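Q: What does the predicted 3D structure of Stringent starvation protein A look like?
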Amino acid sequence: MRTLYHSAFCPFSRKIAFGLKEKKLEFEHHWEVIGKPSSRLLSLNPWGELPVLVDQNLVCINHYVSNEYLEDAYPSPVLMGESNAYRVEVRRLISWFDKIVYQDVFWKLFYEKILKCQLHRIAPDTKVLKTGYALLQEHMEHLEQLTETHHFLAGKYFSWADIAGAAHLSCIDYIGDIHWKQFPSAKEWYCKIKSRPAFRQFLNQTLSGVAPSPCYNQLDF
């Protein structure tokens, strides 16, 4: 028995759900609402963080623990890299998305425009949005530089770096805030990721009251 406690538009949840599918590991979905953890989730993780992965009797309380556990317990296919240098680069990129991009972009755009209204009935702060758009532009420029010279984000091979990047960017793509035409190499990379069978689970997910951007579920856009 393997269960993932997660939410559709939580980038960390998407990261682990994507990784599970890439490793061809079946799991049961236990859907949670962001900001409103169930009593079951709180019994597993008192902080209410998402996601929580339960594999047999092992409880992985967040995305970082789950990520490392999956790579240790199910090493095939290798998603962290074969060499020390490759693994260092994968972890650097994961950290960039999970810490910097998350704070700069998800919280300043997706949370401000969508979750803040849904959870607290508060209108978005235009100053925060302006900052979020500027930071998104900076991060997308860095992503463009990476994808101009790399087949995948860390180099030649698909890895957790691509999984983390796509998990975060897909949430922002849903609300149409990424101008992909400005970033052709990044767009080509994202098309490759969207075409992976393990990623397609996200393309049919919708957010109540919020329509997806026109290209969100298109594999070639």
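A (community wiki): The structure tokens above were generated from the sequence. The chain has two domains: 2-73, 84-202. The two ends are 38 Å apart (CA to CA).
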